[in-house]
């Protein structure tokens, strides 16, 4: 998969030597003989790998699922020497600007969105290392709209869309939990560019459709909003300028033993769709549980209400919570969490549990109070546990 800007870039498939348990599953699965090993490492030959991804799901550790964007691929001999994976190369020498976006507007937006919970945000220990800032305003990736579907009921007040973007031949590696930047299609009256808007990726790392080099977004039409209105109106075939990927902490843990507690409203469900799809594809029999508390005004207003009915309970325990259903008392996610305190308290005490909160800024306070109450009911000091989880990369907030 290559993309030409001022140099030819390639998405290179690599195996993380720190996580690999040398079981040989990848080598046995590879049909083109791209995987080999010596007595130290399993490696992927960039000359042979056709990025079919057949080896990804059978790998028991996720060490196989690592990618770098490179101008010159790492040779097999070099990979055999590695004790750890190299960081994503700075591609400045290849004429690619990587830093512009992160230092300015995006850095501030991401920091603000991840500020909840206090303390420094840390990625889950088992998360794959992400590629960030590959495309900036000066060298955006051009994506083509492959689909634009309404995922709230036709009768719902809010218009939320599932938008599928294809990157064609351009490498755009994302991990579940990352966001992309969308450049507004117009400039301000003085000809200056408007700030970009961030949107969480709602699909798994191997694509909305596997191996199709596409991603999905969940976009809510904000009345009067510059970018969301435009995105929600786009027709199939439209081309848009995209930056990113962004975000290096709000990431899905790859450990199949990790319990993932996901709490969201509205488009905050986007990364959790990605998390769920990732686990369904990579570790469907994982011992770790996935539990979602998802709030909306009504079932009609809840994005993906229909598709969620088909997700098996053994993969995802769902609590869909509604605050405006006629004839029913108002219920918010924090109310349902309190009602499930007996189930949630042992999860909080479990060192393999990760908490993810995503959606409207306003939800944070109520969810935090509920978690504190649930913890305290089980004799757990939430004021001490939360920063510990945060420091261990097990407590993550993304609100906007
Ligand atoms: C990390 C992160 C992830 C995100 N993920 C998603 C996601 O997955 N899905 C999603 O839908 N959104 C997401 N967002 C929000 C998204 O980035 C945009 O903020 C959102 O789509 C609104 O952008 P807009 O251009 O449509 O609206 P804007 O043009 O920014 O307008 C926002 C509001 O302000 C009002 N407004 C604008 N200009 C003025 C003015 N001059 N005076 C008065 N009012 C004004 C508009 O009417 C509108 O109500 C995310 C944000 C962050 C930070």
User: Based on helices, strands and strand pairing, what is the structural class?
Assistant: alpha/beta
Distance between the termini: 34 Å
- DSSP strand content: 15-25%
Mean pLDDT, nearest integer? 91
Bound molecules: flavin-adenine dinucleotide
Separate helix tally = 11
The counted number of beta strands is 16
Element pattern in H and E: EEHEEEHHHEEEEEHEEHEHEHHEHHE
Give the low-pLDDT segments.
Answer: 1-6, 92-102
What is the approximate shape? globular
What's the CATH H-level homologous superfamily of the domain at 259-399? Nucleotide-binding domain of ferredoxin-NADP reductase (FNR) module
Summarize the main sheet. Answer: 6 strands, antiparallel
What is the CATH topology descriptor of the domain at 259-399? Answer: Rossmann fold
CATH classification class of the domain at 259-399: Alpha Beta
Round the Cα radius of gyration to an integer and report it: 21 Å
| Percentage of residues assigned to helices | 10-25%
CATH architecture of the domain at 259-399: 3-Layer(aba) Sandwich
Strand order of the largest sheet: 9-8-11-6-7-10
Please give the oligomerization state of what you see.
single chain
